[in-house]
Here is the input.
Amino acid sequence: ANVAHLTAILVLGLTLPTTLGQDSDTLQLPLAVRLGGSLGLTGADSAEAGAALKGIRLLSEKIGEPDVAKTFRFPVSLDVSRFEDDGSDPVKTLDILKGLAQDRKVDFFFGPSSTSRSSARAAAAAAQVAEDFGALALLPGPALRDVVAHGYRSAVFVGAPAEAYAAEALEMVHLLGAKSVGAIWEATAFYRDVCEGAMEHARRLGMQVVEGAQHSDRLFQQIRRGELPAA
Here is the structure.
């Protein structure tokens, strides 16, 4: 969590002058930054979105702490009051983001990540709206291959692309002596990208890939409910 906070703060420091269309020497100080966006606080993505909002609020508090504040060349505060609930609906996400952008209610968007079908579409929508309206979109966590590869100039990705998400874990178990790996995934683009990328990386490490297959959502739902052994 601390790494994520520091990364986000670093991105803020690097992008604020560009976001506001001003040179850092001519900014009005103290600088109040408006961070907003669309989060699935209800619906399928509610758990992840709720955790993200909690982290965002913590970030706004951290920026005001002396040890963090002294890393900026000028006083900065972060207004995080402009987040709206999209009900985990990508169509509503698009409407919310367009409204925020058209009315210039935010300086840049935050989120969402790409870990589910709905949030992946929402992340792409956020990047596209930022591109269309000359804003910036800060997209946290692992991102779908297609979203990263699109080449959005206004999107800043915090975290690895999905296909590189498991790379460090694989390298660690390889160093500990693991010789083979297997992967099964749910029928979503995000988990497919994670597992396919993991298998490719395992082969580069010289590991044997013994299994790689997509399974039904029902199987994973049963595992989560404890009805089948996780192995």
Observations:
- The chain is about 45% helix and 20% strand.
- Confidence is low (pLDDT under 50) at residues 1-7, 14-22.
- The CA atoms of residues 23 and 102 lie 23 Å apart.
- Residues 164-224 form one domain.
